[in-house]
Amino acid sequence: MNVKIKRIDKSIPLPRYETSGAAGFDLLCRKSVEILPQNISLVPANVIIETPPGYMLLVALRSSTPRKRGLLIPHGIGVIDQDYCGDGDEIQIQVYNFTRQSVLIERGDRIAQGIFVRVDCPEWREVEQMDQKTRGGFGSTDSR
Questions:
Q1: Of 58, 59, 86, 144, which is least packed with CB atoms within 10 Å of its CB?
Q2: Domain residues for 33?
Q3: pTM of the model
Q4: CB-based contact 113:93 (threshold 8 Å)
Q5: What is the CATH number of the domain that holds 97?
Q6: In this structure, are residues 126 and 92 in contact, taking their beta carbons and an 8 Å threshold?
Q7: Residue-wise pLDDT tens digits, 10-35
Q8: Mean pLDDT of the region 56-72
Q9: How many structural domains does the chain have?
Q10: pLDDT tens, residue by residue, 86-107
């Protein structure tokens, strides 16, 4: 797969896969950002990536980020669409500081990872009734 990428600050390295078995490539912070306690902030990732047709770019925190830094992505993941790749469309990682202290993300820190995921865009076939029986709501398999 050949993917177009543009760096905002060329002194920060391109994202890379840290091991041969890594599913995601690390995204690096372009400038230092202080995230105040119990606040949401955007961390600039220094890159614009043209996601290939048939894919989305999923952004997830590195597995150590919540434990080491006290940060989460508010809704779990970030989704970068194929058409978010104009010259001003720098990837930003939205983070929530769940601690009682400010968290400083330094320029060049590896904060999140990107993973290319195949996607299909189905055609909808609206029906009046579904064929399967109702399972229930959240946690419905707990009583089985």
A1: 144
A2: 24-118
A3: 0.85
A4: no
A5: 2.70.40.10
A6: no
A7: 999 999 999 999 999 999 999 999 99
A8: 91
A9: 1
A10: 999 999 999 999 999 999 999 9
